[in-house]
């Protein structure tokens, strides 16, 4: 079992994750390569009366790790049983690995928008994904979980009964989808928000979609039509065959860039095209039953091109199979989620104040929030 202390080379690299805005200072880091390592780390922490934290990719980090940090990034095993239609993954596996392995058998997982996200952390948060309106949450597909209990013993059990070292979950028979995005310049953002809202009123549950307002940096790696602009980005993931007809009302708005096409599921990370570079960020959200005009005006004023704090604002369509989920984040009235994410510049307090101002007018009608979209801060 390899370990690192703060004075050893490799310590900082081992605790580094995708979320760079939270500084962890664990007394000991255990670089686990197996469930036995995880169990030994838990027993060691108990002997020293130290708290335990676990990290794979570090996307969902909300608080600093103290005591003993168990790094599971080396536990990346993936096996697919095509006859049973299930995958088994170890604790540090990312969705990209599962997508590739499942595709060899004509199957796909209920992954999210970013293939670099860890499977276990994503699933523990519920698992809100590209195809969730049709198939439900990733957590609803879990068949079994291998865990380490607080006393350091290994067993199988519920996801919340200990540290998850492996998951087995059902896959879905998907190989292709109609997906991608439509990008619009800032002048069209008000029309894009309203048109997307109206378009989502009666969509079948085979459509997953969101609309985002994004401030793109003026950098060479950004496509020229989007570089240095505030953009509205409509994302679509559709399991039907008439995709061009479905999105015709959206295309009629005249996008700057159009990436919608029939694609293999292995390319599904291109739909949201989220940056894979670690950074410091804060995020929160509210779930709403409707999107009246005053809500659209609020998000445009407080998180659009003229907002005092640069913000990525995303509105997701819920409904469909989510209405029947066992997760506490969703109710029968959950129809949209409004998400705000900002880089931590100039400081966290400024970002939190701006987000609080955005969400305050939404709170009276909100049905809750999605835990998986609370970033860089505690859930409370």
Automatic annotation (TrEMBL):
The signal peptide annotation in the UniProt record is none
Q: Please indicate which superkingdom the organism of origin belongs to.
A: Bacteria
Q: Report the cofactors.
A: FAD
**UniProt keyword terms in alphabetical order:** FAD, Flavoprotein, Oxidoreductase
List residues of the FAD-binding PCMH-type domain: 22-198
Which family does the entry's similarity section mention? Belongs to the oxygen-dependent FAD-linked oxidoreductase family.
Q: What is this protein called?
A: FAD-binding oxidoreductase
Native species: Amycolatopsis silviterrae
Upper lineage ranks?
Bacteria, Bacillati, Actinomycetota, Actinomycetes, Pseudonocardiales
């Amino acid at each position: 079992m390899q370990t690192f202390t703060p004075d050893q080379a490799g310590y900082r690299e081992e605790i580094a994750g995708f979320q760079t805005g939270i500084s962890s200072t664990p007394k000991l880091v255990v670089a686990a390569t197996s469930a036995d390592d995880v169990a030994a780390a838990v027993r060691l922490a108990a002997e020293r009366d130290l708290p335990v934290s676990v990290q794979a990719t570090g996307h969902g980090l909300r608080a600093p790790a103290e005591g003993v940090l168990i790094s599971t990034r080396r536990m990346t095993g993936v096996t697919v049983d095509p006859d049973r239609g299930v995958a088994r993954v170890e604790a540090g596996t990312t969705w990209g690995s599962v997508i590739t392995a499942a595709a060899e058998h004509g199957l796909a997982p209920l992954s999210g928008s970013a293939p670099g996200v860890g499977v276990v952390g994503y699933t523990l948060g519920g698992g809100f994904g590209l195809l969730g309106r049709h198939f439900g949450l990733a957590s609803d597909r879990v068949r079994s979980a291998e865990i380490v209990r607080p006393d350091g013993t290994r067993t199988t059990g519920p996801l919340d009964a200990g540290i998850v070292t492996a998951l087995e979950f059902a896959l879905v028979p998907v190989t292709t989808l109609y997906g991608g995005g439509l990008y619009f310049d800032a002048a069209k953002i008000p029309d894009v928000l309203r048109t997307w809202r109206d378009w989502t009123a009666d969509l079948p549950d085979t459509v997953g979609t969101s609309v985002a307002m994004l401030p793109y940096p003026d950098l060479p790696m950004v496509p020229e039509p989007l570089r240095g602009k505030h953009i509205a980005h409509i994302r679509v993931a559709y399991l039907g065959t008439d995709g061009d007809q479905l999105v015709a009302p959206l295309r009629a708005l005249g996008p700057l860039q159009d990436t919608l096409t029939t694609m293999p599921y292995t390319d599904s990370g291109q739909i949201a095209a989220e940056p894979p570079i670690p950074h410091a960020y804060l995020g929160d959200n509210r779930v709403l039953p409707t999107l009246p005009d005053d809500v659209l005006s609020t998000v445009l004023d407080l998180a659009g091109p003229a907002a005092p704090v640069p913000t990525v604002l995303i509105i997701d369509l819920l409904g469909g199979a989510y209405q029947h989920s066992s997760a506490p984040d969703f109710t029968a009235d959950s129809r949209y989620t409004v998400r705000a994410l900002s880089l931590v510049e100039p400081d966290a307090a400024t970002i939190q104040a701006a987000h609080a101002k955005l969400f305050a007018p939404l709170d009276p009608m909100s049905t809750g929030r999605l835990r998986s979209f609370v970033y860089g801060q505690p859930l409370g």
